[in-house]
Each structure stands twice: as C-alpha cells, then as structure tokens.
C-alpha cells in the first residue's frame, strides 16, 4: 500500500475523532488539518502527526523516560520494519515549501510524489498521485498560494492534497518532531555513505521536552532538536558487510559534529538562524547502536548529555 494512501486514511479517521482536538479547513480546495495553531491539539494529535509523516509505516507511542537522567517523565518511541520508506521517503523534512507569502518545512509521503530530492532519487523512493499527504511545521496555516504550489509540484489538483500543520511550540508539534530519532539516524547513515537499503528495522526513543513559549519558534526548534541530539537513542538492525558498519559507526552520533555540546538554539543563533550553515553532522541521535544480522556483531557509539538537556529545557534548581 502506498504511504500517501495510508496517511490519507489516517487523516480521515482523525477529523472524525473530536478527542484529537483538531480542526479541518479547506484552503485553496485542499484539506488542511490544524493540530496546534488555532486549536489545542495535544499528545494524541502529535502521535497522529508523526504517523502521517511516516505514512503509517511505523508505530509511534509515548513511553516512560528516566526523568533523573534526561529531565522528562515521557519519551517518544518509534519502531518500524520499513525504515527506508517510512523515515527517508516519508518523515524526513526535505521539502522547503516557499511562496511569496508563506514558508514551512514540508515532510510526509507527499515528498515521494514530488520526487525532487537527491535522497529520494538515490534510493528510488517514488510514489504517484493523485492523493498526496504531508505535514508542515509552521506557526500559521498555509496560504492558498502555498497549497497551489504543493499541488503543482506534485502534479495533482489541490482537492487531492491533505496537509497537517502544527507549530514547534505546540504540544502536537513537539511530539511529531521528537518522533524523528530513527529518521535522523537513517539520514546520517546515508550521508556517511552507508547503503541504507541494508537497514532492515529500526527503533528509537527521545525525551519529550517542555513546550517553548507560544511564538518562540527558535526555542521550540531548539528543544525538540536537543531531545534527539543529546537524549536520543536509536538501534538499527542491518544486513551488511561488517566493514561497512565499522566504517561509519563513530560518525553517526551527534557527538561527531563540531557543533555538538551546546543547546541547539545557541548554535542556531550563532549561524544567523540559517539551518544550512549548521554542521550537517550534528543532526543525529546521541547514541546509536547497530546490530548486524549477517555477522551477529553489535556496535554502539555516542553518549547522552544530561547537562545540555537541562539547559535547553530551561530547568533550574529550586
């Protein structure tokens, strides 16, 4: 089943469930589902958004966390037996949706219909329309022009487009970003030259941070990224030559980056709030474990950074 069709089914279920505290709008003939801009949203809405990003090809849930070590009682856990499709074909935020009156980073399986990303082309991750579904991280609902641009780039009509949207400072938006632990490990592996088609399964977890103040987008982005960079743990099961694993394992965790060691909001500010200036090696989990099904060997690298999480989450001793 296509990830877009699976995500569309999730959207149909969601708008019929008042407990998710969502609102469905028609903008430029597309269906736009608000999960935290003009509505309250919540934890369940965040889990729904994450599943939409993943094309319903992964399980996402809240689990207890070690609050003494990682400063949160809850964590977002993800598991999937289709990590390449779910994480890189769906969840990766690789589409900057930009018009004269709107900007947001786009993720979700609609990216595979658009197809204009190097990672999608290299891994041959493609789907055809007409149904396209995606998620935008934004403080505002998309404009009619933005919706039209999405439809045009996917070569479909706006009426066949469904978009979920939430800010990084909302509860739902926070959950869906922190659900990207496995995705960041998969993308980092790909960037390091490892053939991610050899990754058979993935599991990851990261602490759920406190929400940033409404409107403080930088703090929201910072806390959600830090949850993964300094508190994320990922295990990947691969079927690959052992030398391929050994060649990359030390480079996969976030500590391999020169920008590691400070809250992301500080790093972001130093680079003039330009994501493209941040060291790309930073965007990965704190700890990565790779279990090789072919050799029976396990490799682990990285470390948690409780002190950085405490600073990022705004925790002070009383």
Automatic annotation (TrEMBL):
A Pfam family it matches: MCH
Coiled coil segments of this chain: none
Keyword match Cytoplasm: yes
Enzyme Commission number: 3.5.4.27
Keyword hit for Cytoplasm: yes
Chief location category: cytoplasm
Top-level lineage group: Bacteria
UniProt keyword list: Cytoplasm, Hydrolase, One-carbon metabolism
InterPro entries linked to this entry: METHMP_CycHdrlase
Swiss-Prot/TrEMBL GO biological process terms: formaldehyde catabolic process; one-carbon metabolic process
Function, as annotated: Catalyzes the hydrolysis of methenyl-H(4)MPT(+) to 5-formyl-H(4)MPT.
Family membership noted in the UniProt record: Belongs to the MCH family.
Protein name, entry field: Methenyltetrahydromethanopterin cyclohydrolase
Organism whose genome encodes this protein: Roseimaritima ulvae
Organism phylogeny: Bacteria, Pseudomonadati, Planctomycetota, Planctomycetia, Pirellulales
